[in-house]
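Aim 2 progress update. The chain analyzed this quarter is reproduced below.
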Amino acid sequence: MPNDKKYIRDAGHTLYSSSKLFALAALNIETSDSELQTIKETKDLMMDVVGITQHHDAITGTAKFHVADDYAWRVSEGIETSNTAYSGLISDLAESAGISSNDW
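Predicted structure tokens:
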């Protein structure tokens, strides 16, 4: 599956970006403990997804179809969960820089 490699790279990029946002949220004293817990759980999920998809069968595309489908499902769920969790952080950062979320 030729698109799987790109999808796996996208998951790695999402993990990298979310790690930066997690650090910013952790440094912000206004971030509640429950928000930090949610963000940490999301980051841990992405770390698991990226780790699992680094298996040689996922990268080379030699996995059986049902396994490849499982990899794709995991990546999809991880990215969706991450995007949901971090969209609020991105919105807060934009507003702190004077950019309304309505502008983008």
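Residues 64 and 102 are 44 Å apart (CA to CA). The longest helix spans residues 65-96. These observations will guide the mutagenesis experiments scheduled for the next reporting period.
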